[in-house]
Design brief:
alpha+beta, 5-stranded mixed sheet, 5 helices, 5 strands, 41% helix
Length: 126
Amino acid sequence: MQSKVRLVRSFTGYIYVEGSCDVLIKLLTHLRDGYGRNTADVNDTLRILNNFEAFYEIMRRKFKDFISPKKDERDLIKGVVTIDKLKLLKKDGMNYVVLVLDKKVELNFISKVLSDLGIEFEVVTE
C-alpha cells in the first residue's frame, strides 16, 4: 500500500516533503536517475534512508531533531543541492521521514516528479 505524501510550504519559504521512508526512497532514486540530481546530498540522504533504523537510533541517542546530509561545495555553487536536512520519525509502527528541501527547489518541480511516479500527494501551506 502506497501512502500519501504531504508537500508543505512553510512561511519561511522552505518546502517539506513528508511521507513513508519507502516512498521517499523511490522519489529520491527517481530524482537521481531520471532528473540528473546525482549529487552528494541526494546520495547521502538515500544512504541514511536505506539504513533508517541505525540513523534513527543515533538521532534518538544524541537528542537530535534533524540530520544534515553531506553536501559538495561544487553542487552548492551550481545550485543543484536538493536536500537541506531530514528528520526520521516512527509513526504507528511505520518509518516516516520529513525531507526539508533546499530553498532553490521549486514546489512545481517536486509536484511534477511525484506525479510522474504516480505518487498521491497533497499540498499544504503553513
